[in-house]
Design brief:
Layout lengths: L2 H7 E2 L5 H11 L3 E5 L5 E6 H9 L19 E2 L4 H11 L3 E5 L5 E6 H4 L14 H10 L8 H14 L3 E5 L2 H11 L7 E5 L8 H5 L3 E5 L10 H13 L6 E5 L8 H10 L4 E4 L7 E2 L2 E2 L6 E5 L12 E5 L2 H10 L23 H11 L2 H18 L6 E3 L6 E2 L5 E5 L4 H14 L5 E2 L14 E3 L7 H8 E4 L7 H17 L1 H6 L1
Parallel strand pairs: 1-2, 4-5, 8-9, 8-10, 9-20, 10-11, 11-14
Antiparallel strand pairs: 2-3, 5-6, 7-15, 12-13, 12-17, 14-15, 16-18, 18-21, 19-21
Bound molecules: pyridoxal-5'-phosphate.
Amino acid sequence: MNRQEFEALCVSPACTLREALQRLDATARGVLLVQGDDGVLQRTVTDGDLRRARLQQTDDETPVANLPAQTPITVGEAAGAGAVLAVMDAHQIDHVPVLNASGCAVDAVFRRELSQRIWLSSPHLGEEEIAFVDEAFKTNWIAPLGPNVDGFERELAAHVGIGHAAALSSGTAALHLGLVLLGVQAGDTVFCSSLTFVASCNPILYCAATPVFIDAEPETWNMSAAALERAFEAARRDGRLPRCVILVNLYGQSADMDALLPICERYGVPVLEDAAESLGGRYKGRSSGTFGRIGVYSFNGNKIITTSGGGMLVADDADLVARARKLSTQARDPAPHYQHSELGFNYRMSNVLAGIGRGQLRVLDQRVAQRRRVFERYRQALIDLPDIHWMPEPEGFQSTRWLTCLTLSGPAARERCKVVIQYLERHSIEARPVWKPMHLQPLYAGAIYFSHAPGEDVSSMLFHHGLCLPSGSNTSEDQQDRVITHLRRALLQSESLRAIA
Ligand SMILES: *Cc1c(COP(=O)(O)O)cnc(C)c1O
């Protein structure tokens, strides 16, 4: 419902029953909101109210204020879709006005829109997954090995253009193994992008190593070369270089490899590339995830393609990947009697899930195009609004737009982001803030952090001013329109906060 449609629902207490009936017909929402001059909601008027008035032979010119008294059922602005639905169910109604702290109706929610939640990013299966899964069942390959695992590894490596791949149980497992393969040990330090999901750096703690967090830069939202350079200088001064650098490609977009990789090379420190969010993306023509000594992809349910849960470790170095396969299956020595010389893990991908992955890989390019289309549609539809800045995509970068992200600028931007998320949630639309940086997480309190520039903390700014919108490749145009309409209204409404700021 846009602003005009909402305003058409609002009538004054002097509105007559005849006018109310006409308005109900014209708006076709089944409810009108009666507001006094002060904007406070006095009551609602429904078709039922008018029918009862008619049965009691109330004159058509009677003002709605004279209808039998009623306490309207309402919700507050903080109510989420679940709470709104509970109120509707409890009172057997299909619509509910939303009141602000002053008792003024600022919005209305209708049952119809709550029945179809719009997710940030949900699984989107193709046509072929089921055939691979069927084959696994028919041939009894229901284990963390089998033809689908081998096929998925081969096909993914070919797709991104890298030598070798090992299919694992999750992206997190792949990152953990990556650190182990790069020799990270207790007491080591590891550099890691601060603006990311916690799975990027938790494996550092699994290794009993210490993370040092590196800020983002405004042009890509990924690791800042300036901050990385300062972190390395400080590490050299302390005589304690990191064992590796975890470089994250956020929201489908690669980090600026030409700026970052030479710095790591100069210090002789390998890169573990966390491409969990950027499978299908490219940087200067080359696949995201193929730039580090080791790259990692994720197939969690919310990623661009999914195996319900899974990950992949990739590298050009055949020995590294062979070691990954061994370590991921309990590190058995080649002996018949279960002998182990080193610490292994149970991190291999199931052959059933790899079947889903093979089917998903066949639609990856399609999914990238679909996500990019969702982004472009939002951008075009909201192009007239001030204060919106879409996540940039510099020349030579090809993001998958895994999530459509934006920041707000201007007074009260931070407060407005919260209000927008709350507004969308009330209408059963999932939107989220940008990742909360790791150096702000309680879990990582006290970790060393290098900001983009002294006094310029870019990742914190992006967190406080950033939003992610529903971006799934299966978000229909109708759903996108719902997001656009509500987002536009939420942004316009939150402009009042601007004036207060
Ligand atoms: C999803 C994600 C991971 C973890 O992948 P899982 O498969 O969920 O374990 C790691 N890093 C980033 C940046 C992610 O978004």
